[in-house]
Design goal:
Layout: H1 8-13, H2 21-30, H3 42-45, H4 53-61, H5 65-77, E1 81-84, H6 92-95, E2 103-108, E3 117-122, H7 128-143, E4 147-150, H8 156-166, E5 171-174, H9 188-197, E6 199-202, H10 214-224, E7 228-232, H11 239-249, E8 253-257, H12 264-274, E9 278-279, H13 283-290, H14 315-323, E10 329-330, H15 331-338, H16 342-354, E11 358-361, E12 365-368
Parallel strand pairs: 3-4, 3-7, 4-5, 5-6, 7-8, 8-9
Antiparallel strand pairs: 1-2, 2-6, 10-12, 11-12
Length: 370
């Protein structure tokens, strides 16, 4: 038998019957290398916490390797890079969500600075006001070294990508179709500009069509790549509100730009503000909220010294407090970094918050109090 391509096992995980991205995250939490699940025994797979029996059957019976190798060839012929979950260039922030894809298809390149990313999304039927605000915000974000993430749709998304590039910055487009095709078609030039100077990505196979049900799942990647999501104009049924809801679930910041009272394209953003989203009038409003997460990167304002725990504080308490000294983290990130149980971390965070040593931020994030 011919040797398999390096990325073939990762692609295989996307084709196992019953194995979605949530189940994949369970495999990633059990196996050092999730692709080991393809050769694991039934007994070993049964040890994976919460793994459904149908998924175990799918892993044990998987034999569609010929189609996997054909997909590897299709990607290569299209000039598309396959980035597996185990790759050092797979976005670190995306790894932390509940349902990361086993691999990404990439046109262009990821860079380390893309970890400092903000998503700017909104309606396809944007007003002149909405486009102007989106451009102003993206120009400001790029000037501070942020990468702009969006979905390359008509309207606000396209304006966000265009300004990020025009201002000399980086941008990432997340598609709801195969990464080998530009969608919508009128954004073909923009697609090539982004792939030349940023990254166009998708979790969908080569040649996938832009079907409606692909886009809600795509939106979790937009928010997952980002430290925060800014909504610029959105109707009450806009897909941007899905992105905002996913951002909250993932512990990301949510921002909304106010619009004309009574206008349909303003209602979604206004509802987000009523629900607690940060109102944005300028890029400074975004930076004020997210700067604590980028200590030492040039975007954090001067702050007072951190408070000091008393000498009697327990070792586990000190461990968690130390983890949160440099930046704010979602509770899941604190659990992962500390190696402590969910219950123990929750208990310590509550105690530290009540004692005034920590502050809870929107999206179930925590930061050291000053």
């Amino acid at each position: 038998m011919l040797a398999r391509s390096e990325n073939a096992p990762w692609l295989a995980l996307t084709r196992v019957k019953g194995l979605g991205c949530v189940s994949f995250k369970k495999l990633a939490g059990h196996f050092v290398d999730p692709t080991e699940s393809l050769t694991a025994s039934a007994a070993e797979l049964a040890k994976v916490d919460g793994l459904d029996g149908k998924v175990i059957d799918g892993l044990l019976s998987f034999d569609d390797w010929d189609e996997v190798e054909r997909e590897v060839r299709r990607a290569s012929e299209a000039g598309v890079q396959i980035v597996p979950f185990g790759s050092p260039i797979y976005p670190a922030r995306l790894r932390t969500i509940a349902d990361p894809p086993p691999c990404l298809y990439l046109k262009g390149e990821f860079r380390p600075e893309d970890d400092k990313a903000v998503a700017v999304v909104g309606t396809r039927s944007a007003s002149d006001y909405g486009r102007r605000v989106a451009r102003d915000l993206c120009r400001g974000l790029v000037s501070l070294g942020f990468t702009v993430v969006s979905g390359m749709a008509r309207g606000i998304d396209g304006a966000a990508h265009d300004m990020a590039l025009s201002a000399g910055g980086r941008t990432i487009a997340v598609l709801g179709s195969g990464v080998d095709r530009a969608y919508p078609p009128e954004h073909e030039k923009l697609y090539h500009r982004i792939s030349d100077r940023g990254a166009v990505i998708s979790e969908l196979p080569i040649g996938s069509r832009p079907l409606a049900f692909n886009f809600p799942a795509r939106n979790r990647l937009i928010s997952g790549l980002s430290i925060g999501v800014v909504v610029v104009e959105a109707t009450e049924k806009s897909g941007s509100l899905i992105t905002a809801a996913l951002a909250l679930e993932q512990g990301r910041e949510v921002f909304a730009v106010p619009g004309e009272v009574g206008a349909s394209r303003s209602r979604g953003g206004h509802r987000l503000i009523q629900q607690g989203a940060k109102l944005v009038q300028s890029v400074e409003d975004i930076i004020e909220e997210i700067a604590p997460q980028f200590a030492g990167s040039g975007v954090r304002p001067a702050t007072r010294p951190l408070r000091v725990l008393p000498p009697s504080a327990a070792v586990e308490t000190r461990k968690i407090f130390d983890i949160l000294q440099d930046r704010s983290l979602h509770i899941d990130e604190v659990i992962e970094a500390s190696g402590l149980s969910t219950a123990k971390v929750s208990q310590i965070l509550l105690e530290l918050e009540l004692q005034g040593f920590l502050k809870q931020l929107p999206g179930n994030r925590y930061t050291a109090e000053r």
